[in-house]
Amino acid sequence: MSSMLGADVNVAQNVGFYIVAAIMVFGALRVVSGRNVVHAALWLVVVLGGVAAQYVLAAAEFVAISQVMVYIGAVMVLFLFGIMLTRATIGEESDLNNKNWSIGIPVSLLLAGTLVWVIVDQYRGEVLSSPDEPMSTTAISDVFLREGLVPFLALSFVLLAAAVGAIVLARKD
Amino acid sequence: MLGATLSSGWFLENAWLIPLIPAIGFVFIILFGKKMPQNGSEIGIVSIGISLAISIGATFQWIDRVNSASGASDYASGGFFGAFRAIFPTAGDGGYGASFVEPVVKSWTWWQSGGLEFGLGQHIDGLAIMLLLLVTFISFLVQIYSTEYVSGDRRYTHFFASLTLFSAGMLVMVLAENMLQLILGWEIMGLCSFMLIGHWWEEEANSRAALKAFFTVRVGDVGLLVGTAIIFFGANDWAVEHGSNGFSIRGISAWALSGEASQSVLFWGGVALFIASIGKSGQFPLHTWLPDAMAGPTPVSSLLHSSTMVVAGVFLVARLYPVFFVGFDILDTTVNFITIIGGITIIVAAALAFVQDDIKKVLAYSTVSQLGYMMLGLGVGAWLPAVFHIFTHAFFKCALFLGAGSISHSGSHHSFDMKKDMGGLAKKMPITAVTWMVSTAALCGIPFFSGFFSKDEIIDNASHNGYQFFYYVALVGAFMTPAYMTRATYLTFFGKPRGAAAGEHHDEGHDDAHGAAHADHDDHHGDAHDDNGAHDDHGAHHGPHESPWRITAPLVVLAILAIGSGYLNAPAFGTHYFTDWVEPVGVEVALDDEYGYPSGEEESAGIVFAAVQAGDEEYDGKAKGCGFADPSEGTVCYAPKLSHAVFSWSKAMPSIILVFAGILFSAWVCVGIYGDRRNPFAGLTSKVAPARWVHTLLVNKYYLDHLYEKVIVFAFAHPIARAAYWVNQNILDGIVNNVGRGGRRTGEWVYRNVDQRVVDGAVNASGLAASEGGHALQPVQSGKVNQYGALLFGAATVGAIVLILVNI
Amino acid sequence: MYAVNFLILAAVLFSTGVFGVIARRNAVMVLMSIELILNSVNLNLIAFAMMNNSPEGHVFALYVIAVAAAEVGVGLAMVLMIYRNRRSIALDELSVMRG
Fold first, then answer.
1. DSSP string covering B123-155, please?
2. Domain limits at A51?
3. Nearest-CA distance from C45 to chain A in Å?
4. pTM of the complete model beyond 0.80
């Protein structure tokens, strides 16, 4: 293990990971348990930003930039608009949860337990070698425009359909 | 790549034009239809007509090709007229050697992704040729018929556009070279079916029926996608190694028979694909959409929901027969999934047909029942009789539906109610009546009509292949079919005229039947028929009269075919053209013959020299040949080697006797119930309790809804609920009181969700799956999204844990 | 860096999102929880891409981001419409889907 630590495991990277991860988990819990919708949305920004930071740690810079632009730039703004347009009150609310919200606790704990157990069982001790340089955008675009071209086109149609559909649904007539 | 000895020709090589032309026609109708003098119907008719011409040409060239492969020397190579000469002299004795006819396969890359190529193409063999001819021919007749039937309709142009697109979709599927193309055509058909059933969507019942049909079939379509995926992942490696891929029909067929395919992959792939067939072909649990689909205009019922679209499911099974043959081990069992579903469907649907008052619903249930026969045929290994039944059934069922349309158009003032508005029409509408009777005779399987030759072969082969139980099931069906058809015929054409048939004019019936769109139709009626002498007075008096020629001409053509088509393969008269031309031969094909595909004559040997064959191949313990033993090195099989029952009149006797018994019994009962009031049968259902019970049972469609919702819930869920309640009260409460509120919540949750939702929901869901497939998943839904989420994730987690524990 | 780091973080985020989907009554909050789930999947994809040193995982993550954007757009449009019709976006009051 010590040799691994020396060779492959970058301590500073790990420490950074743990700090960001802790913030993310805390933020995520606030998102699902908070009593204030706007605060929940802002905590979600923290989590999404944390995800972007993790991408950078994982040498996925292009995805990290996309994450920031799409999620924090666009999706969160949409959420805030949604909150504003649907709720008159901004403050705390008492009925944000279902009557039987507590079903969620056993289900999610069971899920988390299963997942963690499987992951640890399978990947314990496996070390991700830090690449020398981040995944190049060239490599990603190569995949996009070769093997992934048809899904890419299909996705474009999905986005178009979603845009048209959203306008049709939301307009007043 | 054509073999040296095989003839081909322009029509065969360019068969891909057959679906393309109606597809282009569709675009033109949509774009320019409203500006055309006939509102676009001429484009539809012309495009289908061209396709029909190409299909006919391709058919002759295919026959020519089969004959050339069989070694018959006197065929004139190529050419249309050579084919004419070649057909009849050679087919009868056209070599019984194990020669095969390569299908004409072409493929173009549609798109490629991730190293996989997805093609569009054509795969022309006997089965495809038969359906191409059938679909184009019936579409053509139905389009001519429709110009009269829906004339003046508000959405006349759209109607023809949908009809034309439907034909294109079906033809795409029939031609399909690979599974993706098949799915493409399949989905186009589903869409057109939806549009056409809901053609008069102003009336809510119609749009509901359209939705029901769409969603019910969609339940099955999931099976198609899953099945295609299973088969692809099973077949792809093998198929690529042998110069094909896992989507190609030939690749899949060869793989399934190669002996290297995993039995379980084939089984589950077959189950998934068969679920798609259940949905599309209206088999038992998902059959309920078909009778409702009669809400569409009658030409639609005739084309889509009786003769062509609904056989798509049968076609799927027939097309990928090796998968089912090996997957379900068809010749080594006495019961399998396909026969169970087919057998249930025959009986259940036939019984329901007895109590329908709507003439189209009688025909709809009859269609379901006949589709059951086709499935049963495929399930018992009678590939050819099943396919032949598709062929004959299309003609007589189309004629019956068009006849029903003719009655409602000119005889009963747009009503389909046999009891209220029909009766005694035989004198008023002689052409319709005669064509109806002929088609009915064919449907019932009266000897010398086409249905006899196909249905009897299915029944005979069920027994021949060891499916004794299903032999009796089919015989019972053979008794029920003439019985309910006699009832319908009696009510429609004999007895005293009632309601509209007696000349009464009742507006409410009319409005009920077709709603606003059709009221519009009526306004145009006078104008639309002015050019038609026999019809001038239609607006003035609403008494029954014969329909104009555009309706009767297709009827007459179809009725002639309802008799004649059976003689293509009438073993009683020694003809087996259909066997020669359509059935693929189960022989090993050398692999370096790149496009080797067997078809043709081997099976006719089965008919004529069955004893020899049996001695050669079936006696020494294990049968040999494709589908029984793995093909030898360097060869592949494309079709299993099937043997045919040898026809004899003595074996046909039971079904013939039952048919006539059914007719006589039903006629006796009908005259009793509906005719002479002094007869003991008059008022039978109101006087005799058991008869009343049966009647009520059938009228309520076996109480399937009630059964599932009330009885099963009461019998199973109730005790469980009480037990759970008891546990809850006596045990949980004790614990809960100690553990506190969280524990109590869990207990209540178990009670409320596991018991109330999971058990109830599952029971309700199974009930509705049978009766209301389209709404199948409704009852499991409380409507609360969060609970779905909890159920979904909880179930997924439990499933994952089970998988982990199993694989540990 | 250990592979389990990313994967466990993703698992925790996923389960949190699942809890949110089950527990929340407000439709917008449910959509937010779904975003959590999608992001945890993306984290997994990136981790596996790093493990195999291949760009495919990144490409899939980008697909997921695009689909998520579409999903949020349509989802919020639906929520707006529901709100306009019912003056409420409480999911437990929406039971018209019940059979």
1. EESHHHHHHHHHHHHHHHHHHHHHHHHTTT-TT
2. 1-92+127-133
3. 10
4. no
